[in-house]
Amino acid sequence: MNVTELVKISIVLLLVATGVALLTRRLRIPYVAGLVLAGLAITELLPRRIGLNDSLILNLFLPILVFEAAINTDISRLRSTIKPIALLAGPGVVISSGVTAILLKLVLGLNWTAALLAGVILAITDTVSMIAVFKEVSVPPRLSTIVEGESLFNDGVALVLFSLILKVNAVGSLTILDGFQELFVVILGGTLVGLILGYLSTGLFVRSDEPLSTILLTMAVALGAFQAGEFFHVSGVVAVVVAGLMVGTNGLSGGVSASTRLTLLSFWESLGFGVNSFIFLLIGIEVDLVTFWKTLPAVLLAILAYQIGRLLSVYPLLAMVGWFDRPIPWRWQHVLFLGNIKGSLSMALALSIPATFMGREQLIAIVFGTVLLSLLGQGVSLPWLVKRLNLSMLSPFFQEVEQLQAQLITGKAAQDELDSLLKSGVLPKAVYEEMRSAYQVRIAGAEKTLREFYNRRPEEYESTSEDPSGGLRRRSKLDAIRRRLLEAEKGALDEAMRKRILSEEIVHGRIQTIDEQLLQLEDD
To answer: Lowest-pLDDT range, 18-22, 304-308, 478-482?
Structure first.
């Protein structure tokens, strides 16, 4: 493929991703599922067929996505949920992979190596899809942290197991003790690589403290940690996770200015969004519908197999958490069980199986079909399921508050429309004043009640028996308002500097202060 064709295809994909983003927001369906469907639809419209490249995903896209998730992970929240995360990402992956492999061996007649590879590939959960669901539906912070943490470490453990199975297939034999020893060394080695690179980069962050150079440095750390891990034959994914956690916790916590931190986090958020958009479009493009229909029975059996494996790993292991940590509610366990959506990493691992491996094409077809149905089935139904489980139930008190907010918003919108009708001459002034005063009565009543709500002392509010999480919601609403006002202030300063009303020095000083206030809201 020459450069011109690559540019044309990239333009098409960007336009499609933009259209999907607008359409899915209007139709209220998951963005990820929309991208996959769009990929299926545009396959014949592209100048030439393109598809997923396993090397590109593993060496470029995967480190970017893992690092972006790691630097945004709150280490204190991760520490408080490390026990359930460790159980799900460690023994959970092994149990799920083993059960799935046994079932695939018995039902589909795969050889043991192929069944084990499929079990590991189908044990991987897609972080992006789960986080997208949580953005649509409010869930408790602890549940969100468990899901994100499991997905981060789940990828690393699954990749290590995948490499170990291929090594056993190449060598011919490996004892169970040797296997566990190698697993331990690979994970520990990846952790050490990540710690070293994270520590070294943290010092450079503090010395540079300049947004653009910091962005380049984090890119080097993300990609370099993965390559360093692969070079030393340890887990590159674990190295990226550890390096990202160190950069996010030590490098960005207090060592750099607020402006640098905000610029860096915005860059990685945008980069992660762009990479994911391309990946899920390519998943749709890569799936051959003819092959999919031929392998549909095997795909459905594979889905049933990995769901049984997930069930036997999630519920028993999380039942054990109550022995040494806060128990995980049943409704949370349902989300963790049904939220094991498959994604691009599963497809990349399937493509990376050596060409000489017997049964490779069958495995690829099963994995691709499984990923497609998982994204379209679980990806679309999961938001509905989370809503039905009422994980963040709204108390009657807060329902009343939101009713008042709706009354305030609609009343002011109606008044604005009345003003427009009066100004255009459509509405006589006498009718205007009568209708506007009626709306004003509704607005005044709502404003009075809401003022009392926002002026209550936090400690008084949090102790209300009506809603034990009320203080958190109150702060969340106020923080959202404050964040919007601070962003408006920044916009006004940028506009003033552009029009030469204020000097660059004054504007940058004020923006630095505003950025610090924005970061304070993020940290709270």
So the answer is: 478-482
Buried b (16+ CB within 10 A) or exposed e, 322-337: eeeeeebeeebbbbbe
Return mean pLDDT, the chain. 81
Q: How many Å apart are CA 371 and CA 158, to the nearest integer?
A: 16
Closest CA to 71 of 196, 249, 193: 249
Kindly state the tokens that stand for 1.
């493929």
Buried b (16+ CB within 10 A) or exposed e, 158-178: bbbbbbbbbebbeeeeeeeee
**Four-residue CA torsion sign, 239, 360, 342, 39:** positive
- 275: left (phi > 0), else alpha (psi -120 to 50), else beta? alpha
The answer to whether 211 touches 260, Cβ cutoff 8 Å, is yes
**Residue 462's pLDDT band (cuts 50, 70, 90):** very low
| 149 contacts 72 by C-beta, under 8 angstroms | no
- The Cα 103–Cα 366 span in angstroms is 14
Cα within 13 Å of Cα(373), Cβ side: 22
Candidate ranges 123-132, 163-172, 461-470, 479-488; pick with highest mean pLDDT: 163-172
CA-based torsion, 249, 250, 255, 256: positive or negative? negative
